[in-house]
């Protein structure tokens, strides 16, 4: 891991006692390594413990990236050795489950790539709004022989339907904000110049409402969610997939093209996954 992993990657700005902005800040690509996972756990602890909080908005300080895929330069053991969270799940799916259940409204403000972990975070939020011009969403894992670990197999079918979920997961395509809106992957795609004001106005409005009513409404809506065991199964499949020769070969080939470095591979990941598959075809 690089030195940045010891720095603050998740910043919390309290707009008011009832409204927090969470800023994801791990330049240059906003990848998620073990340290960011630990900081997410601390954040969820704070969200759950605050009696005044009613709404939290997730945003990014890194141009072009909301939240990216995992850090493949980090040691896998640093992640897999972390103890389970309060739900009994490993730390990343634990944080996502707890965010969805937390008695506050959660909103993803997406500008830039939401790749892998970023898609999983927006799926765990109660609402998601994205920049029409500057958003790309991706569950890219199958393209390198992996399985996603943060629960999209469990969450996406309920949100957008089984067949569209299969399209997103198995194609590893980059999804535009307009397509995500049409599928129901996000609430709305907005002109970039309107995105911040729209989310801020909505968050401010909700932050003035009664917390008990917010919490009880979420609890009742959440009865439609998949059980935790489905997210746990996805995590186990993800970790197992990383040990497969197909995944190791795919990640190595992608890295040789420029993966996890600033440049075209990270910007057009879906295109480059397709090129790798084409080149490997018999």
TrEMBL record:
Transmembrane portions of the chain: none
What's a Gene Ontology MF term here? catalytic activity
Domain of life from the UniProt record: Bacteria
Matching entries from InterPro entries are given as:
ClpP/crotonase-like_dom_sf, Enoyl-CoA_hydra/iso
- What is the protein's name according to its record? Putative enoyl-CoA hydratase PaaG
């Amino acid at each position: 891991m690089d030195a940045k992993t010891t720095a603050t990657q998740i910043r919390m700005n309290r707009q008011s006692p009832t409204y927090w902005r969470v800023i994801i800040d791990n330049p240059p690509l906003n990848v998620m390594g073990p340290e960011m996972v630990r900081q997410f756990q601390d954040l969820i602890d704070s969200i759950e413990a605050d009696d005044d909080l009613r709404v939290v908005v997730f945003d990014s300080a890194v141009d072009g990236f909301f939240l990216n895929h995992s850090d493949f330069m980090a040691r896998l053991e640093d992640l897999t050795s972390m103890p389970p969270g309060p739900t009994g799940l490993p730390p990343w799916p634990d944080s996502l489950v707890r965010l969805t259940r937390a008695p506050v409204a959660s909103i993803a403000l997406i500008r830039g790539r939401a790749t892998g972990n970023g898609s999983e975070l927006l799926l765990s939020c109660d609402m998601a709004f994205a920049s029409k011009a500057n958003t790309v969403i991706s569950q890219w894992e199958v393209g390198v022989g992996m399985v996603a670990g943060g629960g999209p197999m469990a969450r996406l079918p309920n949100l957008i339907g089984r067949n569209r979920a299969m399209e997103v997961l198995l194609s590893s395509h980059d999804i535009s904000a307009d397509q995500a809106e049409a599928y129901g992957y996000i609430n709305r795609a907005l002109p970039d110049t309107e995105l911040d004001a729209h989310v801020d106005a909505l968050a401010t409005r909700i932050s003035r409402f009664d917390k008990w009513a917010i919490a009880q409404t979420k609890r009742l809506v959440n009865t439609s969610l998949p059980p935790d065991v489905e997210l746990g199964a996805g995590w186990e499949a993800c970790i197992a997939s990383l040990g497969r020769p197909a995944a190791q070969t795919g990640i190595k080939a992608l890295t040789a093209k420029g993966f996890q470095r600033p440049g075209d591979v990270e910007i057009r990941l879906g295109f480059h996954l397709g090129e790798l598959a084409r080149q490997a075809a018999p």
